[in-house]
Design goal:
about 110 residues; mainly alpha; about 85% helix
Length: about 110
């Protein structure tokens, strides 16, 4: 049942990211190729660090989850504040609600 729940959550998140990508693309808000490569390198380094930390123990894995969701929540709130577009705010709001739910789930295990 747990894996089925995660699978369903993954489908919902994938749809939300597709919607967001379409909105950003339609508004020419995507990063330049150079900036995209730079961000990819930063994110890969962060990913490697977080995977190493989360691999130490189950508690550390939950702490990594909390860190990721808190970071996402802050970024999404900033993004909502920076746009006047109702459609983009709606997509960000959906992602924000998902992150708040994930944060609650991770913190309940600590």
């Amino acid at each position: 049942k747990i894996s089925q729940g995660w699978e369903e959550e993954g489908k919902i998140m994938q749809k939300q990211f597709q919607d967001l990508g379409e909105q950003l693309e339609s508004q020419s808000l995507l990063l330049s190729e150079d900036r995209k490569r730079e961000k990819q390198q930063e994110l890969q380094t962060l990913y490697n660090t977080l995977v190493a930390q989360g691999s130490r123990s189950l508690d550390e894995a939950y702490r990594v989850g909390v860190f990721i969701e808190e970071t996402d929540i802050e970024d999404l709130q900033d993004a909502i504040d920076r746009t006047d577009r109702v459609d983009i705010k709606r997509v960000y709001g959906n992602l924000l609600r998902g992150s708040l739910n994930h944060l609650k789930a991770f913190t309940s295990h600590l």
